[in-house]
Amino acid sequence: MHWRRATGEDVRLLAHLNHQLIADEGHRNPMSLTELEQRMLGWLSSGYHAVLFYDEGDVIAYALFRNDESGRTYLRQFFVARSRRRQGIGREAFRLLRTEIVPADRRIVLEVLTANTVARSFWMANGFRDYAMILELDPPADS
């Protein structure tokens, strides 16, 4: 597996991958591909970094992250192509992220939707532990 930093030229590809991630994780984000492209472009121009992971020339995963002033790296998105799951790709991509991309002295933090049990299990198997929980209250149906 190889990796490279994404550029503005990769925004359309990143938006397509992000669209799949949104569907797979059960997120309620309704953004179109065009809106996701614009959001990704905004992130990449404001402190976020994206990395594309390749195998035999094919993009098989990506990560989107930013470093904050407190010494943490916030991993906003991490996605493995559907056809490449359950083959160790995610584990290897995260290992590369941890050992070659993110400085070793940084704490990595991320969020996982509570209904996304597959992702939660993946992150726990990669050494993450529970730290906080966000609770929500939806507005009344008649508002």
State the helical fraction. 25-40%
**Individual helix count:** 4
Shape: globular
DSSP strand (E) fraction? 15-25%
At CATH level 3, the topology is Aminopeptidase
What's the N-to-C terminus distance?
A: 50 Å
Low-confidence stretches: none
Order of helices and strands: EHHEEEHEH
Can you tell me the CATH architecture? 3-Layer(aba) Sandwich
Task: Describe the sheet with the most strands.
Answer: 5 strands, mixed
* Number of beta strands: 5
* CATH homology superfamily name: Gcn5-related N-acetyltransferase (GNAT)
Helix/strand class: alpha+beta
CATH class: Alpha Beta
Concise account of the structure shown:
It is built from 4 helices and 5 strands, in the order βααβββαβα.
Q: Features of this protein?
A:
Aminopeptidase; globular; 5-stranded mixed sheet; 4 helices; 143 residues; single chain; alpha+beta
Describe this protein's structure.
- The chain has 143 residues and is an alpha+beta fold.
- The protein has a single domain (2-125), classed as Aminopeptidase (3-Layer(aba) Sandwich), CATH 3.40.630.30.
- The chain is built from 4 helices and 5 strands; from the N terminus they run βααβββαβα.
- A 5-stranded mixed sheet has the order 1-2-3-4-5, sandwiched between helices.
- Helix 3 links the parallel strand 4 (72-80) and strand 5.
- The longest helix is centred in the N-terminal third of the chain and has 15 residues, at 11-25.
- The protein is globular and about 50 Å long.
- It starts with a strand and ends in an 18-residue tail after the last helix.
